[in-house]
Amino acid sequence: MKSIPTWTHKVLLNNFDVQKNSLENKIALAIMAYAAGDALGVQYEFIKEKPVITKLSIQEKEGWPFGGVSDDTLLSLITMSSLEEENPDLAANLFLERLKTAVPKLRGLGPTTRAALGLKVSDHEVKQVGNTNGAMMRTALCGMAFKPSDAERRSKWILKSASMTHQNPNATFSAVLLSGIVSELTDNFASREIDVYEIAIKVLNELDSRPERLDSELKNFGKWSPPANGISLDPIETLLAVIWVVKGAKSFENLYIRACQLGGDTDTVAALSSAVYALKAGEMEQFLAMQWLSDIKWDEVGNLENMIYLVAKNRGK
Question: What does pTM read for this prediction?
Answer without folding.
Answer: 0.92
